[in-house]
Amino acid sequence: MKGIAIGCDHAGYEYKEHIKAYLTKKRYYVMDMGTNSPDSVDYPDFVHPVANKVSNKEVEVGILICGSGNGVSMTANKHKNIRAALCWNVELARLAVQHNNANVLSLPSKFVSKRQAVFIISAFLEAEFEGGRHERRVKKMTKY
Which residues are catalytic? Predict the structure, then answer.
């Protein structure tokens, strides 16, 4: 069973609650890092705890949600050993893991439905890193 840390800003709050319920029903271990209301907040305050949980290997993957998905993704990618991927469809989510060994999924709540988000998450969680030629490329991501 994969452990998952999840976090969001106010634009992703309703999605986070929907996703948490889905993941819990599927028997995933979920660590909710907030936010806990739709009141306006600063997304880095919730991204950093998720990225830390993944980077420290307390959980296998993270899920982050904000309006565009960009802010949470950029913030998470500042952390060592984090490969956050902004995905708005199933194929991107699958490829992010297969080719880039992504360990954090960033979702744009303003551009995908809650139903689509669940399909994207399922693809992300079910995909496996292919290694091979992709391994060499992933290792080069943190060279500089």
Answer: 66, 99
